[in-house]
Design goal:
Length: 379
Amino acid sequence: MKLILNEEQQFLKDTAKNFAEERTPVNHFRSLRDNKDDLLWDKDTWKEMVNLGWSGILIPEEYGGSNFGLAGISVILQECGKTLTPSPLFATGVLGAYAISQYGTEEQKKKYLPQIANGEITTAIAIDESSHHNPLNINTSAVSKDNSYILNGKKVFVVDGASADLLIVVARTSGKIGDSTGLTLFLVENNQPSINVVKLDMADSRNYANITFSDISVQKENILGDVEAGGEAIENILDIGRIAISAEMLGNTEAAFESTINYLKERKQFGVLIGTFQALQHRAAEMFCEIELTKSSIMAAMQGADNNSNELQRLASLAKTMAGETLHLVSNEAIQMHGGIGVTDEYDLGFYLKRSRVVEQIFGCSKFHTERYANISGF
């Protein structure tokens, strides 16, 4: 496996880099936060992303996409991560597009995929029900009634859930909490009065929500995939999401590291540049090595996903573990090396620390994925 980008992927990466630097620098995010924007992402900016074709990268050409693969959209998320660009690209362009492309019926694909590619709708996946990620810890029920299912339950920490038009809901149609069987995915349009959406105020100032379903009627034609076969599907969807969010985390890490290196070259103590202190050089070298290892693990996971590798679960957990641990390390060290100014609101670096503490938890923290990797490997 060659851990390099092809020509098309490099073009997407370069385009995303220019877009993020010119259209969505960190001040763009700061403005949305300071103005207490309801969406916490900008509609005009999202429209520009859609016009660039980013929302359709995982969508087949016959439904209005480009089908450039996970590596294509991941390098875009990496560059957007460097400037903390907020958008529905992850929840919609990755999770929603992939889930419907892979598991939707022909009718569902024709209905929803062109709308995703054109930016007409955004999506969110509603899975977690407790404070720690566990895709089998599902108590939300779906009871069959005539030609529909009645959904009841509560989902927490739904990424982009406060604004999504279409929800992909994981519910239990049989079995008990913890069972890998008896799970079914449903497509639920988020405009029904019995759906209660509570927006969350998180440290990273992004779009999250807790969502409660009270006797929501969902037609059987809106089942995504096979009934009671959602366990395998949701793991596959989550692994694609884990790889993609790991790429964004890598971008966060690279930006925090670059800012720190620049500071070491400028800041003086006792008339001497602190970058000449050997202890700080060693700490910077450690960060650099960890970042390079993380790049390799994410690149391997992206290519594994695009090549339908049998090792996708292990590759995804390795990528998410490495991305989480490295971002945690670099964001901590960045603050330490900057000193008190690093946590002041007027300085951008604190945003990366806050983002790291939240994004580490999305679809499983490093501890979760270390254990998952060990179990998959037979340890």
